[in-house]
Amino acid sequence: MTASVWRPRAYAAAAWFEPLHLAAWIALLAGLALTAWAYATPRYETVTEPVPWQVQAAWMYTAPVPATLAEDERLPWGAPLYREVTPQVTVTFTARLNTDAPATDLRSQARLWVRIEDDYGWYRTWDLATTRGQGGHVELTGALDLDQVERLLRQRERALPPARRYTLRVGVTAHWAGQLAGQPWETTADSALAFRREAPGLYVLQRSPASPDEDGDLAAPRWEGVLERTVQVPRQMGLGPWEAPVARWRVWGLGLSGLGLVVLVALQAGLAWARPRWPEVYFRAWAGGRGVEVQPGPWLDAVASRWTSASPEAVLRLADQWDEPVLLVRTDAALHLLVRLPDAVYGYREPWPAPPTVTADAAPVEAAAAADETTAPEEGTDATLA
């Protein structure tokens, strides 16, 4: 596409120079302000985050019994302990730490113990099993000898009067220590099963008075809590209805200021390129919203003979001062900038650049092309139809 086609298009587009120039400055300044604000705001903030944890445990005691007492020949959960049928009872306690947070350097130790006591403060305690290990899982298994319990009671009653009630307790004390989500953590769990002595050698499991038919909490105790940790999270920054991390606002601020700077440089480079080549495009953009194109006529010679010459800057300054438009008049020889005031007319004349010189080799080619254009028959004539 030749320059003769681009020139009028550039002249029409020059009317958008002023709003584009203003928008570019706004984008540049707003981007710089946004960037300064984003870089003045810390990128991260410290918040307290809850880390829930839970230790889920389970009790189980069993012993082989005759088929007349249980179909699977195993002592069921909740059944009484009877020395004549089950002289030894296997007691098992398991516990596991449950948490979604990463657990590291976990150490555990636990002790499975038995205690026989009366209402007056007498008691005897011994261990069934102990364990030490790594991780959040604990499992203890021990054999409860009811003959040993009865021997201790007989020894006690030789020296002291018989008590009205004896209680057999099978308990566990477990301790965990380590780190959860990078924070120090430790807890101790104590749980026990209590059997009331109803008769010599007969021990009945004591259930909760509030819910005597439900042993869920008794057979499956649990301990839970919340550990708090401080973490660094990306800080959120809001501007009106928009909210985003500070890092993203920094990128947006730099991008907006960079876009404004690029547009400004491009506009100034375009003006510098158009100034010596297409003066009417340059001055149309330079006049901005004050520029109004006027068709030339005989009136122009009369005005030109009496105007006061001024620089383009003075013409625009007077137009702003008096709130008058800058008249743009294009002729074959020059571009005229006028401002009409009540007492005078100020103007500036920008001559056109000299037309390109046609060389001897190019002259015949251009003449032949012009002859072809003038002699070419129009579409629809008899010559074309023939």
Overview of this protein structure:
This protein is α+β, with helices and mostly antiparallel strands. The chain contains ten helices and 17 strands. It has helices at residues 3-13, 17-40, 146-159, 216-219, 246-277, 279-287, 298-306, 312-322, 362-375, 382-385; strands at residues 44-62, 81-82, 88-98, 103-118, 123-134, 137-145, 166-180, 183-199, 202-205, 222-234, 236-239, 242-245, 291-294, 308-309, 326-330, 334-340, 345-351. The strands form four sheets. The chain has a six-stranded antiparallel sheet with strand order 2-9-8-7-4-5. A five-stranded mixed sheet has the order 13-15-16-17-14, sandwiched between helices. The chain has a four-stranded antiparallel sheet with strand order 6-3-1-10. α2 (17-40) runs antiparallel to α5 (246-277). The two termini are 32 Å apart. The model is unreliable at 373-386 (pLDDT under 50).
